[in-house]
User: Fold these one by one.
Assistant:
Number 1:
Amino acid sequence: MLHPELLTVEDPADPRLADYVSLTDVALRSRHEPAKGLYIAESSTVLARALAAGHRPRSVLAAPRWVPEVERMLADAPGAADAAVPVYVAAEPVLEAITGFHVHRGALAAMHRPPLPTVDDVVAGARRVAVLEDIVDHTNVGAAFRSAAALGVDAVLVTPRCADPLYRRSVRVSMGTVFQVPWTRVDPWPDGVAALRTAGFVTAALALDDSAISLDELAADPPDRLAMVLGAEGDGLKARTVAACDLVVRIPMAGGVDSLNVAAAAAVAFWATRVGRPA
């Protein structure tokens, strides 16, 4: 089990709190890149899901009223090593001065990033896979993961230029489901389409294209193993990606609307093609 080491802090400039200082997205991009091996888990819900997935905290920052819950979560962490975890306890005004925003979700934790698995390991046994190509908005990445978890997608692959699923905003919007759904980066891309085909997947590009079939047609007779590829906001999928995929699929639209936000499109596609959906 993990043992919380409670440490009261009153000075926002305390050097021990460097991981938490001014947590804007820009700061996180520069200070918490994957190479450094850290990400920030925000809220007690997200921290609980990270711990349940076996991720290890480097430290926790919390207001006094959240300390009992943090202690319980650390003690209950499955498979955790018998080690001490610094829990920095600070009053609400001090927390806001440290982080740059009002901390009202329970706790923040600086977490060690686990090593990314291989694509083969992630898709082994999967029947539904989502591929996020160059989606740069962290909110949309988090929302896509949440839909994937809720609607039976077994794994998510993100391309090299896609936003990091473990950035604070992505994790928060996903409600911690980035820890539930197996994922990794697929590189190179779109060469990875061929690897998915070799693994037995039919690849479907969601795009506006003259050759596209309706999502209704795909859902009426879905393949046993399906990888759905969704593209970036605005530009959509690259032409090379669309050409590499087995199918091009569009979501039927009404009201003069030609497309949906990528997170909304993902939810619709995941629901329509979910395993076990009645024909």
Number 2:
Amino acid sequence: MVTPRRTQQERRAQAEAALLNAAAELVVEHGVRSLTLARVGEQAGYSRGIVTHHFGSKQALIERLARATQAGFVPGLADLPPGLDRLLRLVDGYIGASGSAGTMNRAFLLLWAEAATASELAPIFRERDEAFRSDLRTDVAAGIADGDVRTDIDPDDVAIAVLGQLRGIGLQHLLDPRTVDTARLRHTVTDYWRRALRVS
């Protein structure tokens, strides 16, 4: 049986995925400061030249890694209309996924925490956080419009609080998984936000 040859686009996509996985592994194992284009290429089984060809610089690699690691963390949300139900599913799914986060998701949390003191990371993660908050604000505003969320709730405040809580839980689990029971916590936190936001 003859295996069909992969197109150039397929080969490029496969190499990029391997390089991003290698970068995530290095961040998790050794921290972001250990990340160099040469080490990423070596970890992935490629040359540094391939890494430079795909990303151009360490900064561009980290930006692409930040986007790749955050995408699709809670599957199925894109099919839901904005509103309270989608926000609660996000909270539940995010905490549940934190309990079994893979290398890419752990790398994202480590990079996010590092961004507080690393000037080259801060703009990337400010942008990623604003995108996350924007989605949360949209859900709260839609919930208010639908009559499901209390009208005295400020969407901006909720977005900041939810993002901080979810990322904080993820970091705590990363630091000491034995003390953070995500299976139980996901229900507790989801129920908290349901009671805090829902019209009585």
Number 3:
Amino acid sequence: MGEGSKVCVTGGSGYIGSWLINKLLAKGYTVHATLRDLKNESKVGLLKSLPHAEGKLVLFEADIYNPTQFDPAIQGCEYVFHVATPLAHEPGSSQQYKDTTEAAVAGTKSIAMSCVRSGTVKRLIYTASVVSAAPLKEDGSDFKDVMDETCWTPLHDSLYLHDPFYKDYIFSKTTSEKHVLSYGNDENGGGLEVVTLPCGLVGGDTLLSTPSTRTVCIAQIVQNERAYKSLKFLEGLLGKIPLVHIDDVCDAHIFCMETPSITGRFLCASSYISLQEMANHYALYYPEFTVKQENEDGERKDIKWSSTKLCEKGFVYKYDAKMILDDCIKCARRMGEL
């Protein structure tokens, strides 16, 4: 593939989007990338400065709050990576939608329909989140024994009332993923193949100069309360924390494009570890830092990570938990965060 194939990446200036574009360009693909604002010189400049960008990268302005804007970017492409997502709904940012979930679902629906209308798109690959795959029982009272692709986070308001931000994110990612999967198995899809990749907490390096989920991975060292709260939230929702390297995430996306026949849901994480195991790693290998101490809950059920679907298709992860956490430290040092 590669040479001559045209693909689209929504959310091109984000953490995953920019790394994915870099890899696609290196493989010879022509990339249509969408950004919310083409007048943002730092984001446009970053993408235009990538190796092989000249003549191979075309930028389009499109906002998830105005989903019909994505048509020109998708037209003529064979594959679409829908990476963009509204992270938090800002009142006044749109009169159309009442919350993040409504905006995310509308954007996903519109992009799927653009793929169908294009007449050229073979497969839509959606960047989902593991927050949609909590191994909670339907009433939220307890955990199941395993976490795999059959797990769907129960959407009961009462389970997430303590934090509206996390509730909005869980509801938007879960509802959007279910919606986009419906295009792969119903007549509205017009033959469109759909793959969703619920990704774990992404760590490693970055092309960006701004914080990303990588910061959450080192929250126990940098004493960032908001990032640490996200870590605790993930462990509470999922039993442990699924970790994945940015390089593996993007390779998994490309694998799901280049594999001849693939549809459905594939959890994407190479490791499944507790906050205590993360703290132990940092304390052992980085004694120069003060590591936030964890109170291990002895009653917590030992949930197993049982997702093997991606590897059964032939995908191989290159990074284990130690490598991911070590790369987060390296990156933070390079950027002056440590």
Number 4:
Amino acid sequence: MNTPHSTLHTAIRECADAVAATASGIRADQLGDRTPCEKFTVAELLDHFGETLVSSARAARKEPQPAGPAASGTSPAAVAESANRAAEAWSNPAAFEGSTEFGPGEMPAGLAAAITLEELAMHGWDLARATGRTFAISEDAARVALGAVGEIAEGARVSGLYGPPIPVSTDAPAFHRALAASGRNPEWSA
């Protein structure tokens, strides 16, 4: 992804703020609800999200990732805080330099940032839709998210993380195109 780090960080920050706002409003009675990401309930998505965002902040700071799975039971408040910490960690221009450990292993730091943005945007939307909230980001952030989704879509489909792309109009908003490229139906509702 050839997006300047300042543009990518701005989109990460905007999506992190939207995730924090969404997560902060999740009620206990919504934790068992389904999400657009078929393999996750709201609670399971919060667990995944919390683990990924903590890992992302470590990746931005070039810290090693711990061995073994993270603890489950991530609260909505913890996800909101993790989103803010990840965005803060990616605010340092040095975070985008060289390589770092993230997810399955070592990768270019810029790719780890793109994956962070994709996670914030796609799973943030998943949480918002599942809990009846709006995931509001600017068209600029949506275009950067579309680029991040495009960068990882092929590998994500091969590994089963994305479903087949959903057809949408070429003049659809950038965020709808990003959702569709990730295999999500932009019209999904609980």
